[in-house]
TrEMBL record:
It comes from Acidomonas methanolica NBRC 104435. GO terms for cellular component: membrane. Residues 181-245 form the Signal transduction histidine kinase subgroup 3 dimerisation and phosphoacceptor domain. InterPro entries: HATPase_C_sf, Sensor_HK_TwoCompSys, Sig_transdc_His_kin_sub3_dim/P. The chain crosses the membrane at residues 50-67, 79-102, 114-133. Gene3D superfamilies: 1.20.5.1930, Histidine kinase-like ATPase, C-terminal domain. GO terms for molecular function: phosphorelay sensor kinase activity; protein dimerization activity. The keyword Disulfide bond does not apply. This is Two component sensor histidine kinase. Keywords: Kinase, Membrane, Transferase, Transmembrane, Transmembrane helix, Two-component regulatory system.
């Protein structure tokens, strides 16, 4: 098992970063509250102004931070505007709360409801100032800055939501890539070890059989067991590292040797070198799995591998054996992995059991630019 890297374990959640930034922006916006008491410095103030303002600020902060910055509620904007109106008798710039109300409404959803509430809020500001005989600068300040706050906050929140959606999509892509990589390694290990261990088992049986009667043959089989084991180890390491690249020519030579060890003669028809390099690997792994199944189950004497390009331009690999009729073919990990590889490369796999063995046919779509 590969241990996770420290950077992976300690990496913060990207979604947490988005919310943290928005919370920081919201907290930074509180700096505009310093405008609230400025009239006190040139008009003076009473104790009730300070007490009422502190109480109103406490209620405002509780409402302002009541919900996450990406999911505020409409009632928060209405409540903040009401707090501003309630604090208007305390001889301060109470209209600053109308600006905060516009900021909160800009992030609320549904958007059309938020816009409607904001328009009502602007109308209420005008009516409030008219009824209470407030000076027109209060209307100008409250309406202009609240509109600016509504627009800029809306754009900022939209960008933050898009950023979050992008991060979620990236997380999903990473998860899918990790899952695909695990499946690839599993298929590679099955194909590599299945073939190699089958060959090792066959040669071990041969070494045991020839030991009493042909020591030289037994020694050769034993050496080949070691070579097969070392080759399997190298291929497993390459597969795990993602560097495994099977070659159809190499697999054809290995198939000939492996089949010969079990008394099966390989007949090859077609030109291996004519295969496009982009299709070589998947056909090589298909041949490996087919030969492994023949060694394990077929009890055949001959195996024919045909490689051709049909009239539609598709590359066709056919592997046939002349083993006796057996029970219906069970599709396990080997055939399933073979189908998956071919499907990923735009191909299909057909397996038929006739009266004189099994016929496996792999078809790959014509590579762009290939001759028909």
């Amino acid at each position: 098992m590969i241990a996770p890297r420290a950077s992976d374990r300690l990496a913060p959640s990207p979604f947490g970063e988005v919310f943290a930034r928005l919370r920081g922006m919201r907290a930074t916006a509180l700096i505009y509250l310093i405008l609230y008491p400025t009239p006190w410095f040139y008009e003076g103030f009473h104790a009730r102004d300070v007490v009422g303002s502190l109480a109103g600020l406490a209620v405002f902060l509780a409402v302002y931070f009541a919900h996450p910055p990406l999911h505020p509620k409409l009632w928060q904007g209405v409540a903040i505007a009401a707090i501003g109106y309630a604090m208007s008798p305390f001889h301060a710039i109470w209209a600053v709360f109308i600006v905060y109300a516009g900021s909160v409404l800009a992030a609320a959803r549904p958007r059309r409801h938020a816009i409607a509430v904001f328009i009502v809020l602007l109308i209420s500001l005008v009516l409030f100032c008219w009824i209470t005989h407030r000076p027109w600068p209060d209307i100008a300040f409250g309406s202009s800055f609240s509109i600016a706050s509504f627009v800029t906050t809306g754009l900022t929140v939209d960008l933050a939501r898009q950023h979050r959606q992008l991060l979620e999509a990236q997380e999903e892509v990473r998860a899918l890539a990790a899952s695909a990589e695990r499946e690839r390694i599993a298929r590679d290990l099955h194909d590599l070890l299945g073939h190699s261990l089958t060959l090792i088992a066959v040669k071990a049986d041969l070494a045991e059989r020839f030991g009493p009667i042909d020591s030289e043959r037994a020694a050769r089989e034993t050496r080949e067991i070691g070579e097969a084991a070392r080759l399997a180890l190298r291929e497993v390491r390459a597969a795990v590292a993602g560097m495994h690249g099977a070659s159809l020519r190499r697999e054809m030579d290995r198939a000939r040797d492996a089949l010969a060890s079990t008394g099966v003669t390989l007949h090859v028809q077609g030109d291996v070198e004519a295969i496009d390099p982009s299709q070589d690997g998947v056909l090589a792994m298909t041949l490996r799995e087919a030969v492994t199944n023949i060694i394990r189950h077929a009890e055949a004497r001959n195996c024919t591998v045909t490689l051709e390009r049909d009239t539609s331009g598709e590359v066709v690999l056919v592997v046939e054996d002349d083993g006796p009729t057996r029970e219906p073919i069970a599709e396990g990990n080997g055939l399933g992995g073979m189908r998956h590889r071919l499907a990923a490369a735009g191909g299909v796999l057909n397996v038929d059991r006739g009266g004189s063995g099994v016929r496996l046919e792999a078809r790959l779509a014509a590579h762009p630019g290939a001759a028909a």
